[in-house]
């Protein structure tokens, strides 16, 4: 049409030109050519200049954004030994609604599965994540599967291989310390801390990996890639000028001594409990063992799901970090604290003695003491060395009943609680792995509630000897040792010495603060410490004697009960031992708890002592010590009733979960019923409205006047 | 001073040679830029397309040199004979031909295959020029016009039978040359109008198109107001043409799409233009096949994403990563559009236009009619190839396999256009001589 029009224009409007009028046809033909050029250029103009959609379409087709995951930060111990190694793992991810023309048979051959498995997995993914979002089809692909997929991936539209770093642990120690990495969960994505994460990202789930996630993860980068028609990435887009490089995560240097940790785990094998060693001068944790432990490699990479199920089903609950989660009555290891408070309040002096004849009768019932010999509690040192129950019950009562408290015993107990609170008990200490439990130190209001206000110092006299209402985590026991070893101060126990080589990193600021909670006199500390030295040298803790090192310690044998079928049943005592050394220049403070095993000096004492020797002297020397070490290696103190207790506990948990679910269901159904009734009511009102009954509206709601 | 005494090199029209070389060079660059992901790779790699094309250029230049050294009378002498050979070759394809991409138009000699239909364009041009320049021919008579048409339409018919519609349509371009020699105006007008009407009906929505085809006669009437006073029949012609156009685009086509064609047929027609089937013609149960218009869609994306200045040499994502099918042959223009943008594409179009106008200029300076008709034939063939190829890459014309002269990858195409041009140059060198 344009052509016809221009032909006419050429034909007639230039008829005056001489060459044209002679023979117009060459000119018409030229005109046709020019018109073609004009049409083509006009079309090019609309396509290339006016219309932007082709640019967008081209980018959508050929350019894709690839998230580049940085290497996760390394973790090394105090001697620079690598505690873990980064590996690259591949996950196969898919977006269900982008899967097109999938040759299922071929896919199944490559993956080595059958069609039914494939359909089942896809169904599971879709119910979990929907069609739109990227889901991990298979995590931690094996080397061989990965190679096969790399070759064939272009055939499977909608699938993508994601690269990410995983950890392996060459020493196989410290599972509870490092924690593990796993896919970010639905619940975590709602948390503002993980706002920048996407489905399928890996994140530290516990331990240091979780606590230092922001430090370790580094910064993700973005690379723009060009892909070809077969969906294969071919080249970087615009030579990478739009890319953001990824920044590798910073490394953590720990106070942890890998050798000591490994040794501790070996000693604690076959036991349930915990052993913690802290450097008192810095609060740096040298070893943190929770027994039973497990190989951290189990929860890394492809074996995660299998390992996790296995561990969580085990009746000894290896995933439970007893060092910070278990709460035990401290038993006799609490006695140094009782003495310290008594000395500071001024109710006793180091020379104070108690005429113990094998029991404490002041509260109208007998509280047994393991010693009955005369003068075994003639002064603080002796009482401590012999762990006299009567003595410390008396000191506790004297402390809370002191005349100086205007409010009587109520105020006394409150002050006593304040002291212990200042020692870091009754609340989480703030260690740099998450989930720490508070322990429990009772105060006046607790007893007021429990006994309706009618109680006195006899009601909780047992707490003086660390039984009854006091609960401490093993970490708190170790920290209390640090406080005593340092004669009055502590640093919050923590693992990380420096972040990326910087010891003053802002993430560590809480751990650089020296806590001097009370102003107890040095002489009070010295008296208690001398008592603790005697415990080792000539008292209940002689097993911890180390030639050439002045060791101070305290044994504990903790009575404990389990409510079995409504009956309070006494279980085997917990064996507890706390100590520090050397006396005047403390380098290590240790707390060891071995559950349900017996006397403090039988199990916990030797373990603490061997760890101390290992740390201070680097090796175990002497035939008797090596025999002791062998005995500890081989011993299995896990009682058979633990299995019963565990299964009962699981039943209880299950019941609680079921009740909770049922409760939620009831609430849901009640709400639904209410909604239905509301709708019914509205319908009814509408019906009456239409049949003309009297209606008054008030603030937009329809009300009926009957 | 007679031109004939000048040396041959001075009589040759060098601008055409320069334009020819420039276009072939652009073609090789386009093939190179698409195939090479890394420019540090060796350029001289015989397995790569650009080197093959370079080899074909050498062959073409040798053939061109031979043509230049041949006596110009030779082409007049062999015109009919070559035409006859061409027809025989075309017929021979039915017996000897091998099938390439569904068409039956290739003849194979060992590893070398060629399309007689391509060569036959040249022979037909020579034959037509000879026939029209024969003194006994009077092109004003219906008989001679029919004979001329038969010369053109005979190979065309055979090629249609071979299922090479695109190549066959090229033969219709000879009517442009015949128009120059006296075919009535109406033929050209009707030809272009029908083509415009067909494409316009498919591309433009019904109402806007109605306005356009109504506006044009009104404009023409206004422009021709003086002639109309003298010639009343013209009004009837214009109104008649308008009525036919309206009837066709507003009634016949919708009726046919709605009631006559099956869903897939409508689909195929629209997809040739890279268009979706309009809502009103969609039939229930026919799922639109996305692949049908894949070529044109991708071609438009490639060209459209070029923008004003393009993505730069070697940075074309769509062509480099094979999103556009046949991007070295029929869709070679996509690479230019994507990498050099509007500026580069426009420059290329202008380059082609310069060549076309130069050929018309050459045609008009010939003393012998044989040379002139032949030159117009060359211009017409080039014009047709350009119009269809460029339009189809931009979604203006249906996708029919037709190459872009000198640029498209492929030996036969380059060689046949080279021969076409060099014969023209040889004849032009003797433009002062009367060839009979």
Written overview of the protein:
The complex is a heterodimer of chains A (706) and B (436). In chain A, the strands form seven sheets. A five-stranded antiparallel beta sheet of chain A has the order 12-11-18-17-16. With 706 residues, chain A is α+β, with helices and mostly antiparallel strands. Chain A has four domains: 2-51; 64-254, Penicillin-binding protein 2a (Domain 2), CATH 3.90.1310; 258-639, 3-Layer(aba) Sandwich (Beta-lactamase); 644-704. Chain A is built from 24 helices and 20 strands. Chain B has 436 residues and is mainly α. Chain B has a domain at 3-22 and 48-183 and 288-325 and 350-429. The radius of gyration of chain B is 23 Å and the shape is globular. The two termini of chain B are 22 Å apart. Chains A and B meet through α1, α3 and α4 of A and α8, α9, α10, α14 and α15 of B.
Entry keywords:
heterodimer; A: 706 residues; alpha+beta; Penicillin-binding protein 2a (Domain 2); Beta-lactamase; 4 domains; 5-stranded antiparallel sheet; 3-stranded antiparallel sheet; 24 helices; disordered C terminus; B: 436 residues; mainly alpha; 18 helices; 68% helix; 3% strand
């Amino acid at each position: 049409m344009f052509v016809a029009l221009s032909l006419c224009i050429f034909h007639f409007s230039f008829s005056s030109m001489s060459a044209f009028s002679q023979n117009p046809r060459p000119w018409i033909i030229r005109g046709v050519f020019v018109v073609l050029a004009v049409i083509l250029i006009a079309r090019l103009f609309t396509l290339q200049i006016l219309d932007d959609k082709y640019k967008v379409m081209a980018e959508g087709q050929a350019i894709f954004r690839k998230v580049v995951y940085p290497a996760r930060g390394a973790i090394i111990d105090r001697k620079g030994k690598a505690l873990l190694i980064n590996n690259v793992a591949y996950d196969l991810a898919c977006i269900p609604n982008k899967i097109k023309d999938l040759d299922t048979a071929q896919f199944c051959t490559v993956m080595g599965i059958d069609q039914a498995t494939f359909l089942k997995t896809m169904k599971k993914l879709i119910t979990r994540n929907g069609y739109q979002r990227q889901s991990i089809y298979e995590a931690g692909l094996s080397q061989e599967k990965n190679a096969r997929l790399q070759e064939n991936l272009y055939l499977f539209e909608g699938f993508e291989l994601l690269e990410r770093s995983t950890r392996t642990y060459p020493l196989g120690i410290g599972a509870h310390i490092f924690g593990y990495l796993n896919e970010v969960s639905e619940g975590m994505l709602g948390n503002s801390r993980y706002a920048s994460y996407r489905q399928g990202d890996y994140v530290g789930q516990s331990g240091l990996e979780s606590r230092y996630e922001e430090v370790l993860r580094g910064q993700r980068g973005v690379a723009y890639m060009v892909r070809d028609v077969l969906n294969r990435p071919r080249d970087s887009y615009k030579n990478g000028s739009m890319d953001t490089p990824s920044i590798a995560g910073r490394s953590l240097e720990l106070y942890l001594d890998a050798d000591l940790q490994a040794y501790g785990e070996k000693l604690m094998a076959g036991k349930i409990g915990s052993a913690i060693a802290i450097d008192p001068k810095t609060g740096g944790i040298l070893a943190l063992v929770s027994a039973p432990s497990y190989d951290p490699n189990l929860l890394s990479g492809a074996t995660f799901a299998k390992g996790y199920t296995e561990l969580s089903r085990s009746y000894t609950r290896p995933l439970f970090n007893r060092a910070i989660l278990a709460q035990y009555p401290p038993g006799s290891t609490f006695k140094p604290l009782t003495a310290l408070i008594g000395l500071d309040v001024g109710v006793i002096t180091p020379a104070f003695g108690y005429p113990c004849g094998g029991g404490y009768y002041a509260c109208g019932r007998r509280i047994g003491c393991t010693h009955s010999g005369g003068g075994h509690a003639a002064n603080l040192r002796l009482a401590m060395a012999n762990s006299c129950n009567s003595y410390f019950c008396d000191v506790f009562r004297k402390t809370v009943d002191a005349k100086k408290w205007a409010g009587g015993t109520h105020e006394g107990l409150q002050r006593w609680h304040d002291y212990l609170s200042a020692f870091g008990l009754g609340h989480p200490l703030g260690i740099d792995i998450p989930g720490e439990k508070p322990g429990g130190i009772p105060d006046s209001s607790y007893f007021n509630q429990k006994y309706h206000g009618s109680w006195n110092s006899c009601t909780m006299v047992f707490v003086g000897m660390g039984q009854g209402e006091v609960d401490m985590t093993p970490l708190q026991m170790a920290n209390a040792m640090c406080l005593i070893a340092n004669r009055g101060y502590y640093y919050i126990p923590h693992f990380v010495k420096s972040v990326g080589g910087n010891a003053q990193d802002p993430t560590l600021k809480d751990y650089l603060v020296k806590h001097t909670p009370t102003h107890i006199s040095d002489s009070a500390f010295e008296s208690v410490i001398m008592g603790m030295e005697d415990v080792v040298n000539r008292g209940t803790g002689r097993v911890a004697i180390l030639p050439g090192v002045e060791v101070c310690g305290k044994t504990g044998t903790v009575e404990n009960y389990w409510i079995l079928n409504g009956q309070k049943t006494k279980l085997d005592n917990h064996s507890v031992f706390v100590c520090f050394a050397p006396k005047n220049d403390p380098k290590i403070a240790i707390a060891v708890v071995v559950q349900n095993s017996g006397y403090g000096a039988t199990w916990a004492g030797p373990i603490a002592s061997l760890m101390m020797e290992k740390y201070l002297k680097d090796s175990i020397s002497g035939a008797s010590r090596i025999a002791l070490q062998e005995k500890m290696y081989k011993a299995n103190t896990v009682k058979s009733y633990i299995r019963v207790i565990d299964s009962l506990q699981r039943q209880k948990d299950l019941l609680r979960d079921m009740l909770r679910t049922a409760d939620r269901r009831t609430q849901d159904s009640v709400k639904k019923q209410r909604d239905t009734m509301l709708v019914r009511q509205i319908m009814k009102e509408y019906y009456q409205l239409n049949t003309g009954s009297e209606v008054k509206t008030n603030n937009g709601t329809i009300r009926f006047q009957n | 001073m007679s031109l004939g005494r000048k040396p041959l090199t001075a009589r040759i029209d060098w601008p055409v040679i320069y334009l020819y070389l420039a276009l072939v060079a652009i073609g090789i660059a386009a093939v190179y830029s698409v195939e090479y992901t890394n420019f540090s790779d060796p350029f001289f790699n015989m397995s790569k397309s650009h080197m093959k094309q370079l080899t074909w250029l050498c062959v073409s230049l040798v053939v061109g040199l031979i043509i230049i050294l041949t006596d110009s009378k030779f082409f007049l002498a062999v015109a009919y004979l070559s035409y006859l050979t061409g027809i025989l070759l075309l017929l021979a394809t039915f017996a000897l031909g091998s099938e390439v991409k569904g068409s039956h138009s290739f003849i194979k000699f060992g590893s070398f295959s060629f399309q007689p239909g391509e060569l036959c364009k040249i022979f037909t041009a020579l034959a037509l020029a000879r026939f029209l320049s024969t003194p006994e021919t009077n092109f004003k008579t219906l008989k001679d016009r029919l004979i001329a048409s038969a010369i053109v339409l005979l190979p065309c018919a055979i090629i249609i039978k071979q299922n090479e519609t695109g190549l066959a349509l090229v033969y219709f371009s000879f009517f442009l040359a015949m128009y120059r020699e006296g075919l009535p105006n109406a033929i050209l007008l009707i030809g272009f109008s029908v083509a415009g009407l067909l494409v316009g009906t498919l591309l433009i929505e019904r109402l806007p198109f109605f306005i356009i085809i109504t506006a044009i006669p009104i404009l023409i009437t206004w422009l021709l107001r003086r002639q109309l006073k003298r010639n009343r029949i013209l009004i009837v012609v214009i109104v008649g043409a308008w009525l036919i156009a309206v009837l066709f685009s507003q009634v016949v086509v919708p009726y046919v799409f709605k009631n006559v064609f099956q869903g897939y047929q409508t689909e195929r027609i629209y997809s040739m233009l890279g268009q979706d089937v309009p809502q009103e013609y969609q039939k229930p149960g026919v799922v639109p096949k996305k692949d049908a218009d894949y070529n044109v869609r991708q071609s438009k994306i490639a060209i459209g994403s070029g923008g004003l200045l393009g993505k730069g040499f070697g940075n074309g994502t769509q062509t480099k990563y094979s999103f556009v099918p046949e991007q070295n042959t029929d869709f070679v223009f996509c690479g230019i559009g994507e990498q050099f943008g509007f500026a580069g594409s426009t420059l290329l179009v202008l380059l082609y236009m310069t060549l076309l106008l130069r050929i018309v200029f050459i045609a008009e300076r010939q003393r012998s009619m044989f040379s002139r008709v032949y030159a117009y034939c060359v211009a017409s063939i080039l014009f047709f190839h350009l119009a269809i190829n460029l339009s189809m890459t931009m979604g203006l014309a249906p996708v029919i396999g037709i190459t872009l002269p000198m640029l498209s990858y492929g030996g036969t195409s380059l060689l046949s256009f080279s021969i076409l041009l060099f014969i023209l140059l040889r004849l032009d060198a003797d433009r002062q001589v009367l060839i009979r």
